[in-house]
Design goal:
Blueprint (H helix, E strand, L loop, with lengths): L3 H9 L12 H10 L2 E4 L4 E4 L2 H8 L5 E2 L12 H9 L15 H12 L2 H6 L1 H18 L2 E3 H6 L1 H11 L6 H12 L8 H27 L6 H7 L10 H32 L1 H9 L4 H11 L5 E6 L3 E3 L2 E3 L4 E5 H4 L36 H18 L4 E2 L20 E3 L4
Parallel strand pairs: 2-8
Antiparallel strand pairs: 1-2, 3-5, 4-10, 5-8, 6-7, 9-10
Helix pairs in contact: 4-11, 5-12, 7-9, 7-17, 9-13, 10-11, 11-13, 13-17
């Protein structure tokens, strides 16, 4: 049963508006302490804020299904749904939005194309691409928006390279991904929602053409070709619709999450110049520092699940059919798991790797190692080559209103001239 205090907190959940947009963590702390599981009517979602409850749901796909994981919280108009359906859109997202045994099949097929060896083999190419963007930053400096100059174009360039997409299409792809993000904004004006639908439809048409072309003309050492050709014993290969929807997941997650992680890492490390100097002197500490940033301000705020039966979490009854938002960002600051200053960035934190910034269990992010590799390479180069970097005081750090993803839209940095 939801108490009046918990119900009030659910009404106060406004993540797309200031002050929660810029700093949601005080509100998350209130949730953990006062109403760890509560209903937010604006989004028709149950908020789950404690680490133990989030973990319990992630470990139990039978009672907490991933179906409809990214179904918009507000129903789209029927005419818009028909328009999107004709373009090939569906709110079904392979890999993210399925349960075993379907998920096991999809993950197995993707895993064959996204192996540890494949990611490791990309390191030389990633270094080349990263070096080109860092070179451009230094040439244009000694002041730059590092989101526009590095943390957006680098991951997008890598994911387009992975899929065999022209790097010049990156801006277009990002625009379409932003359109799809708008499906999660309630009370969007009809004209804005229709504009976003046109972008999502164009994205699906683009992906369909790409998949069909690659089916006809497979390429050697190509990730998409590997997905098309991937086979598991006793399982059918991915069909056209699965390939299109899976490609949309890979494009979106492959750049959005890494962009936000990279931007947030730079923001917090520059706000803690002692940590920056420590990492400059000892780059071997970067992996733990990256895990700590993932804990401190995860680029994926949370993921949704659907209760398949009546369930109880933190003494709160959640009805069958309810949709839950598992708040990774709140769980990662749960004092029960991170008792030594959970609200403080500590690049030496011994259990930083217990974060759930990339999810947990069967749905742990398949691209996590690629994201960490990109992040480590970019930070190594910046630590080595940026002389005395600091945030530009007069430039604010704005955040894009988004329910699932979080990261600075701009991050202005200046450094000493050579």
């Amino acid at each position: 049963m939801t108490t009046p205090a918990a119900a009030q907190l659910g009404l106060e959940y406004k993540p797309l508006e200031a002050p929660q947009l810029n700093d949601p963590f005080p509100f998350y702390a209130r949730l953990r302490h006062e109403a760890p599981v509560t209903f937010a009517p604006a989004f028709q979602l149950w908020l789950v804020s404690r680490y133990a409850d989030v973990q319990a749901a992630l470990r139990d796909p039978k009672r907490f299904s991933s179906r409809d994981i990214l179904r918009p919280p507000v129903d789209l108009p029927p005419e818009m749904l028909e328009y999107l359906k004709e373009a090939g859109y569906s709110p079904e997202y392979p890999l993210l939005g399925d349960d075993p045994p379907s998920h096991t099949r999809i993950r197995g097929l993707v895993g064959k194309a996204f192996s540890v060896a494949s990611v490791a083999a990309m390191e030389t190419r990633i270094r080349e691409i990263a070096r080109s963007y860092v070179d451009a930053l230094l040439r244009a400096g000694p002041r730059a928006d590092v989101v526009a100059g590095l943390s957006f174009p680098l991951p997008m360039h890598i994911i387009t390279t992975l899929l065999g997409i022209p790097a010049s299409d990156g801006e277009k792809l990002k625009g379409w991904c932003a359109d799809e993000n708008l499906f999660f904004v309630p009370h969007l004006p009809p004209e804005a929602r229709m504009h976003s639908a046109r972008g999502v439809a164009a994205f699906r048409h683009y992906l369909r053409a790409m998949v069909e072309e690659r089916q006809k003309n497979p390429r050697p050492d190509d990730f998409l070709t590997s997905l098309i050709q991937a086979r598991l014993e006793g399982e059918r290969p991915l069909n056209l619709v699965e390939l299109i929807n899976l490609s949309s997941v890979i494009v979106f997650a492959g750049h959005e999450t890494t962009t936000n992680l990279m931007s947030s890492a730079l923001l917090y490390l520059l706000r803690h110049p002692t940590a920056w100097q420590e990492l400059r002197a000892n780059p071997a500490a970067l992996p733990n520092a990256i895990d700590e940033v993932l804990r401190f301000d995860t680029p994926v705020v949370g993921m949704m699940r659907t209760a398949t039966e009546d369930v109880e979490l933190s003494s709160t009854q959640v009805p069958a059919g309810a949709r839950l938002l598992l708040l990774f960002a709140s769980a990662n600051r749960d004092e029960a798991i991170f008792p030594e200053g959970a609200e403080r960035l500590d690049i030496h934190r011994a259990n930083a790797n217990r974060h759930i910034g990339f999810g947990h269990g069967a749905h742990y992010c398949v691209g996590a190692q690629l994201a960490k590799l990109e992040m480590r390479i970019a930070l190594e180069m910046l630590l080595e080559r940026l002389p005395n970097p600091r945030l530009v005081p007069e430039k604010p750090v704005p955040y894009l209103p988004a329910l699932i993803h979080r990261g600075p839209r701009q991050l202005w940095v200046e450094w000493d001239a050579a």
